[in-house]
Amino acid sequence: MYALNYVKAKSLREATAFIARNPEAKLLAGGMTLIPTLKQRLARPTHVVDIANLPELRGIAAKGGKLVIGAGTRHHEVATSAAVRKAIPALSGLAAEIGDPQVRNRGTIGGSLANNDPAADYPAAVLGLAATVVTTQRSIAADDFFQGLFATALEEGEVIVRVEFPLPKRAAYSKFHHPASGYAMAGVFIAQTAGGVRVAVTGAGPGVFRWTAAEAALAKSFSSAALEGLPLDASGLNNDIHADREYRANLVRVMAKRALAKLSGRK
Ligand SMILES: Cc1cc2nc3c(=O)[nH]c(=O)nc-3n(C[C@H](O)[C@H](O)[C@H](O)COP(=O)(O)OP(=O)(O)OC[C@H]3O[C@@H](n4cnc5c(N)ncnc54)[C@H](O)[C@@H]3O)c2cc1C
What we know:
Blueprint: E1 5-8, H1 12-21, E2 26-28, H2 34-39, E3 47-50, E4 60-63, E5 66-70, H3 75-80, H4 82-87, H5 89-96, H6 101-106, H7 109-115, H8 122-128, E6 132-135, E7 139-141, H9 142-145, E8 160-166, E9 170-177, E10 184-193, E11 196-202, E12 209-210, H10 212-220, H11 245-263
Bound molecules: flavin-adenine dinucleotide.
């Protein structure tokens, strides 16, 4: 780890002002990704600015047909929140399956989205539910937020403040865990929303994506049978020591069917 300075921000305003003055500084939320990155000397910020407990970034509220979750909310809080369980049970279930208890007690939704790991779980929910990522500068629709491998629409110095999830008619998530890390080898989030059916896939490709063929098929018939023989182009999927792309394509199909089975109460 390189030497760096630690700054504990007292407010969101102080944090944003500090990173504006110090462009080589990095925000520190749960530290579950940033600290290992620093330990491996893959990043060399001048400062880490701790935003973990800022009140402006905390909290969960269901209001006006939306579920609003502060960026600094930890996975464990989402997993155990009665408000989340009532509004979008698939989201609390997803949070409960992230990593292990240590990760869930430190990691935050904002950190996970800013990092946009291609195998992370929250991006599937945010894209699948057509959520909005609200930052210190603007509101970004999920369809515009995720931009591929570890890439997002966030600009330098832009901080995620909260995520607004419109309430779906129903939604489910199914994930095939990597046995060592717990990350998704493939995870599929299916939602029936006011705007139609959305199917978001994580873990299988270089970034979260919508499986539009499945969306069209499920819009016609919301059933497992609709997914039979449906094309999923494997050529852009990940091909690595953990699984080849054809296996991952098949996993996506299986996870989609499992998500549907959850919705029909069969799993
Ligand atoms: C062993 C292990 C297993 C894991 N398993 C899973 C898993 O199964 N599924 C899964 O989804 N994830 C998994 N994770 C990742 C975990 O969910 C982390 O929460 C997440 O990657 C980063 O969140 P964090 O709050 O710790 O962010 P940090 O590590 O503090 O920050 C990550 C990045 O986001 C930036 N950042 C943080 N907050 C904000 C903000 N509000 N606005 C803008 N930028 C911000 C930071 O500057 C940094 O660049 C795992 C991690 C570990 C270590």
